[in-house]
Amino acid sequence: MASLWIVVAAALLVLGCACGGATARPLVGAAAAKQPLQTSRPFNIAHRGSNGELPEETAVAYMRAIEEGADFIEADIAATKDGHLVCFHDMTLDDTTDVADHKEFTGRRRTLEVQWANVTGFFISISPIITFDEFINIALNAKRVVGIYPEMKSPVFVNQHVKWADGKKYEDKFIATLKKYGYGGKYMTKPWLQKPVFIQSFAPTSLIYAAGLTDSPKVFLVDDVTVRTEDTDQSYDEITSDEYLDYMKDYVVGIGPWKDTVVPPTKGNRLATPTDLVAMAHARGLQVHPYTYRNENRFLHYNFRQDPYAEYDYWLNNVGVDGLFTDFPASLRRFQEWTTKTRN
């Protein structure tokens, strides 16, 4: 288990070297000389950075992902109790830090309801990890155009437990942060290509609310079909129906399904017959960006014979998706470069 203090120290050290101890600012005049975002092949989305190599959601993981050729860097945007937006996946610190070993924090352990279940642990109350602003600046300071793919994380839970003095909601703060850095514009327009962003969420009502705040493209995340949404209490099987996709297409440009929802595995960990979810989405002009692709053998179905490139080949060329969330952006980049050269 990673130590909170080691991870934080590493992240702060990198940020200190890159920024001189202050929040980085976009390089003046650098944007005009930047290599543009590639749009000729499916997007390489670095899931929480290059987290197959480095601690997830840290500055070093995001910088590494950019070095490895990611088109977008992805982050879960949580909120601390005092209202700061930070990059952190879990709602508690238990699984990713050694907070439980520190007796001085024992009194901070609580039980709260998160997505229909009671969760006991140490909830985020401080922000020693990188902030949403710092995440954005990592992308803006890259030598080429790098998109961001932030998730509105557990918005129902955040709005229940975090109150801002101005009465604004979590979604308001999230979108305001993006606007502060000049993000906006419909998918593939000139403003979007200059500062690419996809806003993602598992909560359909948050995406609909956000659609009233910004025209930036949004992606509706889809979990296992048996899981229920945190806001509407519907199964993802219900809300991937023809009727619901017809409704959501007015607010989103795509869906981000769990890959096992698209192609369910058998009990023997082999691929079964694909569902028609990709075809349903494409018929409505929606992109499909499944998650999460990993190199480790235990995450690969037996059909791929321990070869992550075989998995990329199947999803890109057989299933025909428009982007992939991967923990190993270098692997996806190499596969796409090799296969592009072969086709050419």
Key terms:
15% strand, 344 residues, disordered N terminus, five-stranded mixed sheet, globular, 11 strands, alpha/beta
Helix-strand category: alpha/beta
Unreliable parts: 1-31, 112-116, 122-128
How confident overall, as mean pLDDT?
A: 85
Principal-axes geometry comes out as: globular
What percentage of the residues does DSSP assign to strands (E)? 5-15%
Question: How much is the radius of gyration in Å?
Answer: 20 Å
Distance between the termini: 45 Å
Order of helical and strand elements: HEHEEEEHEHHHEHEHEHHEHEH
Helical residues, percent = 25-40%
How many separate helices?
12
Please tally the β strands and state the result. Answer: 11
The biggest sheet amounts to:
5 strands, mixed
